[in-house]
Amino acid sequence: MTAAEAETTAPTAEWVRIEDLYENPYPIYRRLREESPVAWVPAVGRYLVTSFEACHRIEQDAETFSANEEGSLMKRSMGHSMLRKDDPDHQTDRAAYGPVLRPKAIKETWTAAFEKNAEKYLEEFRAKGPGADLHLGFAAPFAAENLREIMGFRNAAQEDLQRWSQTMIDGTGNYADDPEVWAKAAASSAEVDAAIDELVPVLKAEPDASLLSAVVNAGMPIEAIRANMKMTIGGGLNEPRDVLGTAVWALLSHSDQLAQVLAEPALWATAFEEAVRWVAPIGMYPRQTTREVEIGGATLPAGARLGVVLGAANRDPEQFENPEAFDINREKKPHLAFGGGAHFCAGTWVARTSVAQVALPKLFAGLPGLRLTDRPAREGGWVFRGMLELPVAWN
Amino acid sequence: MPTITYIQPDGAELTLDASPETSVMRAAVNAGVPGIVGECGGQAMCATCHVYVSPNSLEGLPEINDEEDEMLECTSAPRDPERSRLGCQISCGPRASLVVEVPAGQV
To answer: Fewest CB within a 10 Å sphere: which of A188, A327, A332, B68?
Structure first.
C-alpha cells in the first residue's frame, strides 16, 4: 500500500480489470458511480472519478486538481505540452494557437478543406464496394488529412499523421513499460521533430493559416512547439475519427432517429453532440491533487493521482435521463466530452464542423441506403474509445 | 459591492453581489445560476454563457471583440444584434448594477 492509499477514505475497487474496461467500460462505470464515485482502482493506479458532479468540479478547480502530473507518461511520450500545464504556463501556450482553430478561421479557411477531403475519401471508400470498413476506410484518413492541413505538415502525408498519432498515444498509455512501445513512440517523436525543424524557417519567411505557422510566429520556444504539436497530433485525430464512427454506427442502429435526421438536416449537430456524449472519444484524463481534498464523499491526500472519467460522467443518471441510450431527442444538457475549464478542447469547433456539418451529411447523401452488414461492428477502449471496425453496405 | 441580476426565461430573478471585475459568467457559475454553463472557463471558446443584456444595462459595456463576435455566431439561442453578449466578457466595472436575461438554452 502506498502512502497515498493509506491516507484516503476512498474505497478500493479491486474488481476492476483493464481488459474489461477496454471491452465495455460502461457497466463498470455504473457500479463504481453507484458504490463510490471516487474509488482507488489498483489496476490503473488511480482514483477513478465517475460522477458528473465530481468530474465537473475538478474541471472548474485547477488549483486543487492540477494537470501538471508527476511521472506523466504523456510528458515522456510527447514532451511537456499545454495539456499537462496549469495556468499561467498553460495560457501562454494556448494563446499562441491564436485564431487558427476558432469558428471564423474554420468557416473562412478550413471548411473548404473538410469538404474537399470528405469528397476525396468518400470516392475512395465507394470504390472499395459494399462491405468495406468505414472506420479505417473513411473516418481515419478523413480526420488525418484534415488535421495534416490544419497543422500545416506540408512535408508529411495523412498516413504519417495516423502512424505518429497512434504510436505516441500508445506511449502515453504504456503503463506496462513495454520497450517496443517506447521505441515506436520515440521514432515517431523524432520524425515529428524533423518535420517541424524543416518547416520552421519556411513559415517564418512566409507565414500561412496553419497552426504550426501560428505558434512559430508567436515566438513559442521550439521545445514547446514540439510538445504541443505532438499533443495536437495525438489529440486531434482519433477524436473526430471516433465520434464520426460512433455517430454513423449509432444512427445505423436506430433507424427511426436516422430517418428524423435525414428529414431535418439541423439534427446532424444534435446527433453529433449525442454521439460524443454517449461514447466520449477521450474517456479519461489524469489530474493530481495539490492538497488534501474532500470529493465524491471521500478524502484524498495531496499528490493523489486521479482519472477523471468523462465517459462515466456523460452517463450519470443524475445528469442525463436514461443515460445508457443513444437518443437525439433527449433533453439538451451540457456534457463533458470536450472537457471544461482552461483545458476545454481547442479542437471542439473543428470536430463539430468537420464531422457534423461536412462528413456525416456527405456520407449519408453519397452512400444511399447506407446500412450495417452481417459482419458486426466492433468498438473498444476506455481511455480512448471508438469503433475498431465498422463494416457497412449501401445500394 | 455591485450586483448582477439574472432573469430566467420564466421571469424568476436572482441578484448576486459581485466585485467590479468578476464576470457575469464567473459569478453565475460560482453561485450555480441555472442556464449559465461557462464550460470553457472564460476563454470565449464555448459560447455557453450567452446572455441578453437588459436595455438599461447596455451603456458603457466594453466593445465586442473579434473572438466574442465569432462565438456569438455559435450560440444555441438566437443572437440579438444589440443585446447578446458572452457572460465571460462582461462585468459590472464602475457601475452599481448589471441586469441580464438568461436565454432558453446554451447547448
So the answer is: A332
- For the segment A154-169, what is each residue's pLDDT rounded down to a tens digit? 999 999 999 999 999 9
pLDDT of residue A8: 86
* Domains of chain B listed by start with CATH number: 3-101 (3.10.20.30)
Asked if pLDDT for residue A198 goes beyond 50, the answer is: yes
pLDDT at residue number A6? 53
The pair phi, psi for residue A362, each rounded to 5°, is -70, -35
Q: Chain B: give the shortest CA distance to residue A334, in Å.
A: 6
| Block residue for cell numbers 463498470 | A28
pLDDT value, residue A1:
47
Lowest mean pLDDT among A4-13, A144-153, A155-164: A4-13
Contacts of residue B39 in chain A, CB cutoff 8 Å? 334, 338, 340, 344
Q: Is A86 exposed, middle or buried (0-12, 13-18, 19+ CB in 10 A)?
A: middle
Q: Give the β-pairing of A46-49 and A305-308.
A: parallel
Q: Report ipTM for this prediction.
A: 0.92
Name the interface residues of B facing A (CB cutoff 8 Å): 29, 37, 39-41, 43, 45-46, 48, 66-67, 70-71, 73-74, 76, 105-107
CB contact under 8 A, B41 and A99: no
Percent of chain A scoring above 90 in pLDDT = 96
Note whether A395 and A369 are within 8 A (CB).
yes
Q: Which CATH superfamily is domain A3-393 in?
A: Cytochrome P450 (1.10.630.10)
For residue B29, give how far its alpha carbon lies from the nearest alpha carbon of chain A (Å): 9
Residue A93 in contact with partner chain B when CB distance is under 8 A: no
* pLDDT average, residue stretch B68-75: 96
pLDDT of A2 reads 53
In terms of DSSP H, where are the helices of B5-103?
24-31, 66-72
**What's the CA gap between A226 and A171, in Å, rounded?**
16
Residue A384 clears pLDDT 90, i.e. is over it: yes
The per-residue pLDDT of chain A, averaged, comes to: 96
Neighbours of A51 (CB within 10 A): 25
> Considering all CA atoms of chain B, what is the largest pairwise distance in Å, rounded to the nearest integer?
33
B52 forms beta bridges with B84, B101
Residue linked to cell 445505423: A252
- CB interface of A with B, residues 338-357, below 8 Å: 338, 340-342, 344, 346, 348-349
Q: Chain B: nearest CA to A308, how far in angstroms?
A: 16
Q: How far is CA A63 from CA A88, A225, A302, A343, B98, in A?
A: 11, 25, 12, 13, 29
B39, B73, B107 member nearest A344 (Cβ): B39
